[in-house]
């Protein structure tokens, strides 16, 4: 019984690592996309969204 629990924990851990790797790759892809937009002068800042996030962080 203990071996099964250990195996399940290891499987969950492996799945979490895969999920984290996918999320990391998605973030890196988005960062590259933003870099290109900035480089090309195409990046637009959403002032309302930025102001809202700033206000929330101050509360």
TrEMBL record:
Instruction: Specify the domain of life of the species encoding this protein.
Output: Bacteria
- List, as start-end ranges, the regions of compositional bias called Polar residues: 1-23
The transmembrane segments are none
Locate the region Disordered: 1-24
Segments forming domain Anti-sigma-28 factor FlgM C-terminal: 12-55
Concerning InterPro entries, the annotation shows:
Anti-sigma-28_factor_FlgM_sf, FlgM_C
Please report the name of this protein according to its UniProt entry: Conserved domain protein
Name the source organism: Nautilia profundicola (strain ATCC BAA-1463 / DSM 18972 / AmH)
């Amino acid at each position: 019984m203990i071996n099964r629990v250990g195996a399940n924990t290891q499987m969950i851990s492996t799945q979490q690592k895969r999920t984290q790797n996918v999320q990391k790759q998605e973030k890196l892809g988005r960062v590259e996309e933003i870099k290109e937009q900035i480089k090309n002068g195409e990046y637009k800042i959403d002032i309302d969204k930025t102001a809202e996030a700033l206000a929330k962080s101050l509360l």
